[in-house]
Amino acid sequence: MTMSPSVPDPDRPPPALLALDRWTWREIAHLLFNLPMAIAGFVYAILVIAVGVGLSVTVIGLPVLVAGLRGARVLGRVERGRARSLLGVRIEEPSPLPSGRQEGGVFPWLWSGLKDPVGWRSLLYAFVRLPWGVLTSAVTLVSLIVLWPVLPFIVRGLTAADRAMVRGLLPPSDELERRIAELESDRGVVVDTAAADLRRIERDLHDGAQARLVALAMGLGLAKEKLTDDPEAAARMVDEAHGEIKVALQELRDLARGIHPAVLTARGLDAALSAIASRCTVPVNVSVDLPGRPAEAIEGIAYFTVSELLQNVSKHSGARSASVEVWRASDRLLIKVTDDGSGGARMGGGSGMAGLAERLGAVDGLFVLDSPVGGPTAVTAELPWRDRAPAGSRAS
Fold first, then answer.
1. Radius of gyration in angstroms for the set of CA atoms belonging to the chain, rounded to a whole number
2. CA-based, 20 to 30 A from 266: which of 15, 47, 103, 247?
């Protein structure tokens, strides 16, 4: 995880100095606030446990306990924010619990709340902090008065324990829980992307080939009416219709290529990327070094990623040349597209970079943009490598 220079690495705090710098003062503030926060958290934990467990024999006991655990999540979020602002410890927020309506009723809602590890750990954190809050606040106050020459070292030792508590008790439940949250977000991206692609195909058909075919049908109808009265005019109209048919066929081919190009299906990434490179407005050197063909879905995403990046090179870069490299490293398919243009590309600059990053993220991919002002621009994309299914299994 990359940190800005002004924020300490939570795994390696800045070294303690004899001088009281601003980070030492932030840590002192954190330690002094430990006592009121610990008192509030301890009182809350005692109330939740006493009321929730005490009333668990009644019909309202479990809902009260679940509500208390959800409230403990709020306390955990406050403590994570305090550690983030004063100690520089950045902990990912856990994914929210579903509501009763999402769970499908009261009993699933109760069960999901009772087995919520984030809520229970937040409650445990609030319960055990009282003696530590008393100790750290007292030691910090005394040190401010009589031990101030070594105060930075005392503060650093106390906050090291605070950092360990936050990282141990207040992160998301585990890697699986974080992965579920990512997949839920990625599912939304995939659905939105598919809907946008369907709208684009519908628009292209309506505004392009469909409109041209309607005009063609009308022209042939007029030619049919003139066939006996004015054969020469009818012949000219048929010739024009023949030209319109060629244009309509080309538009349909372009549309089909935009959905899934035939050359990709038949010959793979090397030939397909060479084809789109030949249509780029600048010379493009294509290098594909793959031991075989990846799964069709991965191959398609790689193709359209390079296609959109080369469109950006043609439209926005002002480059004189570009290159495309594709290779496999372990279980990843890597793509690198570079150009010698003016640079300055940004993820939110309207060049489609953000959309590409979302699409790759939806399939557990990565997207890295390096484009300093003045160039050159280098885009690196990673996709998971999945072996291509045998032809017989695809057919079945």
1. 32
2. 247
Question: Which portions of the chain are predicted below pLDDT 50?
Answer: 1-11, 101-102, 186, 394-396
The DSSP code for 341 is S
pLDDT at 135: 92
Q: How far apart are CA 11 and CA 115, in angstroms?
A: 30
Q: What angle do CA 122, 167, 142 make, to 5 degrees?
A: 90
Residue 219: both structure tokens together:
């022209």
Q: DSSP letter at 3? A: -
Query: Which is nearest to 170 in space by CA: 46, 98, 72?
Result: 72
The pLDDT of residue 111 is 80
Residue 388 DSSP code? P
What distance lies between CA 163 and its chain's CA centroid? 27
Residues forming beta bridges with residue 324, ordered by sequence position: 286, 337
Which residue's structure tokens are 């600059």? 349
Please give the pLDDT value at position 384: 86
Gap between the Cα atoms of 212 and 161, Å rounded: 72
Angle, CA 115 vertex, CA 110 and CA 118 arms, to 5°: 115
Residue % of the chain over a pLDDT of 70:
76
| Other CB atoms within 10 A of residue 158 CB | 22
Contacts of 356 (CB under 8 A, 6+ apart): 305, 308, 309, 367, 381
| DSSP output for 21-73 | -HHHHHHHHHHHHHHHHHHHHHHHHHHHHHHHHHTTTSTTHHHHHHHHHHHHH
Q: What is the pLDDT of residues 117-158, one digit of tens each?
A: 888 899 999 999 999 999 999 999 888 888 877 888 888 889
Q: Cα angle at 275 between 195 and 351, to 5 degrees?
A: 45
Cα(172)–Cα(178) distance, integer angstroms: 7
Question: Are 367 and 357 a contacting pair, CB within 8 Å?
Answer: yes
pLDDT of residue 44: 92
Under 8 Å between Cβ of 82 and 125: no
Q: Supply the DSSP symbol for 315.
A: I
| Nearest in space to 172 (alpha carbons), one of 99, 103, 119 | 119
pLDDT tens digits, one per residue of 149-175: 788 888 888 999 999 888 888 887 655
Residue type, 314: S
SS3 assignment, position 336: strand
pLDDT for 22 = 81
